[in-house]
Amino acid sequence: MALATKHFTCLLMAVLLASSIAEAKKKPKTTHFQFYIHDIVGGPKPTSVRVAGRSSNVSSADPVAAMFGSIFVMDNPLTATPDMNSTLMGRAQGIYAMSSQQDELSLLMTLTYNFVSGRYNGSSFSVLGRNPVIREIREMPVVGGTGIFRLARGYCLAKTFSTHQMDAVIGYNVTLIHY
């Protein structure tokens, strides 16, 4: 009986080793795609909500400095076009914080982009980095992913498409390397 158990254990280890080697030999894939985020701060159904920050009675001649330390939680729709009624591709969920005190408004973003339709349905990728929102084009790093984007790395380029008061539509061009 002990000999049979040893043989089974050796066979199991050999199968696991072979599958690990096969997984390691997979070639990386590159995926490029585009979508739009709808960041709605105002109105009756906001998708971004301030959850922490300095008291509202902080006075400053500099609006960037006055917002420093504010933290927002978001659950923004991702659409195929800038039109809010276009195909819903997924949701951008996470946190962003006002991280600059001086001249340039920038956010520290930690977000996961979850896909709920199309060929990426059930997959996601995550971004962690600085977003200097006043710049025309902002580059942020992709630090991981799930589903077909497992072990993703790459970058996304964000460009503001439109704004209305504090609400914004931002276009994202994304390049991912994944397995």
The percent of residues in helical segments reads 10-25%
Q: How many alpha or pi helices?
A: 2
**Biggest sheet architecture:** 8 strands, antiparallel, barrel
In terms of quaternary structure, the protein is single chain
Rounded to an integer, what's the Rg over CA atoms? 22 Å
| Poorly predicted segments | none
What is the rounded distance between the termini? 41 Å
The secondary-structure element order is HEEHEEEEEEE
The total count of strands amounts to 9
Tell me the β content. over 45%
Average pLDDT, to the nearest integer? 87
Secondary structural class: alpha+beta
Major sheet: arrangement of strands:
1-3-4-5-6-7-8-9
- The rough form would be described as elongated
Question: In words, what does this structure look like?
Answer:
The structure is a single chain. By secondary structure, the protein is of the alpha+beta class. The model has no long low-confidence stretch (mean pLDDT 87). An eight-stranded antiparallel barrel has the order 1-3-4-5-6-7-8-9. The protein has helices spanning 2-24, 63-67, and strands at residues 29-39, 48-52, 71-79, 88-98, 107-115, 124-131, 137-146, 153-164, 167-178. The protein contains two helices and nine strands, in the order H-E-E-H-E-E-E-E-E-E-E.
